[in-house]
Amino acid sequence: MNKFKLQIVTPDGLVFDDEVENIILRTINGDVGILANHADYVASLEIGKARVKQDGKYREASCNGGTLTVTDGKVRVIAFSFEWADEIDMQRALDAKKRAEDAISKKNSDYDVTRAKIKLKRALSRINVAQK
């Protein structure tokens, strides 16, 4: 299978920089898969699971939104955070889920509830990825 250069960058730095066969990400319009020789493309990323295929094997991660660009055969993911399944601290994710659910149930301001819902979505993504 043909390969392409994939870079994954977060505010903490470069997370991944290597040749891959495929990447599947959740965009604001649904899941999208990128293969080698994909047309130039830009998309906003949603919180969700990412799957990267390298050397015939998939590796999963939790992507916390950002931007996907495909330019001249190179793919770049600029994410708010990107955590590989084996790097996720399950207890921390479960604690974050509980805090978010508690904040939602308090029904403070709309702003606080909206922020809590986003935090809950991120925690659920991390839990889902780490459990597999």
The CATH architecture of the largest domain comes to: Sandwich
Q: Biggest β-sheet, characterized?
A: 8 strands, mixed
Shape: elongated
Fill in the CATH topology of the largest domain. Answer: ATP Synthase, domain 1
Distance between the termini: 25 Å
Could you describe the 3D structure shown?
It is a single chain. The chain is of the alpha+beta class. It has 2 domains: 4-85, Sandwich (ATP Synthase, domain 1), CATH 2.60.15; 89-131, Single alpha-helices involved in coiled-coils or other helix-helix interfaces. The protein has 2 helices and 8 strands; from the N terminus they run ββββββββαα. It has helices spanning 90-106, 110-131; strands spanning 4-10, 13-20, 22-27, 30-35, 41-54, 57-71, 74-79, 82-84. Strands 1, 2, 3, 4, 5, 6, 7 and 8 form an 8-stranded mixed sheet that branches. It is elongated.
